[in-house]
Write a structure and sequence with these properties.
Helix 1 crosses helix 4. The chain is built from 4 helices and 6 strands, in the order E-E-E-E-H-H-H-E-E-H. The two termini are about 15 Å apart. It is an alpha+beta fold and about 130 residues long. Helix content is about 50%, strand content about 15%. It has a two-stranded antiparallel ribbon with strand order 1-2. The chain has a two-stranded antiparallel sheet with strand order 3-4. It has a domain of about 90 residues: Winged helix-like DNA-binding domain superfamily/Winged helix DNA-binding domain (Arc Repressor Mutant, subunit A), CATH 1.10.10.10. The longest helix has 29 residues.
Length: about 130
């Protein structure tokens, strides 16, 4: 068993809880809502938009995220309605993010990474003295 003075200062390290030793790590989830509490971006929507960006097709993106095409299409359309702007363009050569869709994807990704880093820093300070 690790003594308090010997605890590693890294996320996922050993932390004494009561009489047991446990491996702990911080997990974060970020979502964006409008003023009415409607979701504009969350991990699921991010995954879908990222897949569309990477594969250039809504149907292939649906396969990549392991969801039915109809579900992916519905999520995109619902998100666009809440956001008030088109996020995906669909044409004869597939689908791609609009400029606004790409901007939202990049900013969300940056925010999620920042929150994760911040949570890990706080986690180490709180749980690993």
């Amino acid at each position: 068993m690790t003594k308090v003075g010997q605890m590693p200062l890294r996320a996922g390290g050993v932390c004494p809880i009561g009489f047991r030793t446990m491996i702990l790590k911080a997990k974060t989830s970020v979502w964006l809502e409008n003023e009415r509490g409607q979701t504009i971006m969350d991990p699921e929507i991010y995954q879908i938009l990222k897949a569309i960006y990477l594969v250039g097709s809504m149907s292939k993106a649906a396969e990549k995220v392991r969801k039915q095409f109809r579900r992916v299409w519905g999520i995109v359309k619902e998100t666009e309605a809440v956001y008030g702007r088109p996020l995906v363009e669909t044409g004869p050569n597939g689908s791609r993010l609009t400029e606004e869709g790409y901007r939202l994807l990049v900013k969300y990704e940056e925010l999620a990474k920042t929150c994760k880093r911040s949570a890990n820093t706080k986690f180490r300070k709180i749980f690993y003295f």
